[in-house]
Amino acid sequence: MPGVVLLHGANGAGKTNLLEALHVGTQGFSPRARRDVQMIRFGADAARIALGGSRGANAVETDTVLMRRDPRTVKLNGERIESDRLRHELTTLVFTPDRLAVVKGAPATRRAYLDRVVGRVSPARAKLANEYASAVGQRNAALRRIRAGQSTRDALAPWTDRVVALGYELVVARAETVDLIAAAFAELSGSFGLSDAALAYEGAAPTVAELESRLASDIERGVTGAGPHLHDLRIEAGGRDLRVYGSQGEQRVAVLSLVLAEAELLRDRLDVSPLVLLDDVLSELDGSRRAVLAEVITRTAQTVLTATSAETLPSEPALSLAVTPGRVG
Fold it and tell me: By C-alpha distance, which of 258, 283, 291 is closest to 93?
């Protein structure tokens, strides 16, 4: 059932920590912390995130325990599982200020973002990026053995074929996903005042002929110099690359539009209603754009967003919770 949950409170009250807990408890990783110890309260040895909800007609419960000295434990409906499995079972999308790196960061950040979208839109392709990366790693190792005189070029051929085959599949998957999300991204961006926004996948599938033509250079450097591990996702508005020529406000709108466009895509294409987490999105939107956001998020299954004041959201949320240090109510 659609619903908006508003978490409001002063800066530093813990609103972002709550969103982080929801993300860890449903996806198995934090959108901002690199290590579990960074999510455990100072002076404590462990932290626990226990969540309950529903997926369609089915009840869902997750229980995640983070420990300083031991590996974390994760349970889904009472069954102990690996953390990575959560993101394949549950769908959560997040916007935080840190996510601006999707627009203004290095190409590797956009590739990783796009590969996550590929996995959510096409679960059968979820492992494709890792399989391709493994093949490139094996080919790079073979290149270095040739450079060291420990192998021959003939031994490289199977890895070249593998990189080409998986590279083609990955490029097709990425390009198709960009095509699926591009129209909604452009429409949402325009609603937020970012005109003529567009997405474009930059890069072509590698071929055996291309890799063989640069073989001498690849052997000298010990790396594969062509393929989707070097491609990029261009995010632009009015023909301007927002990574280089976008203001921070435009970059924020672009990332927010990506998150909301993916939510709509998943709902319409796969009948999946993701949990959407929006941290501090209202502070840099004017009144008309806040109204647009309020209308859009009512179309998702559940959205949790944070604000410093309950009055910041121009519509009535399904649930409004005041957050103070150590307390939600």
Answer: 258
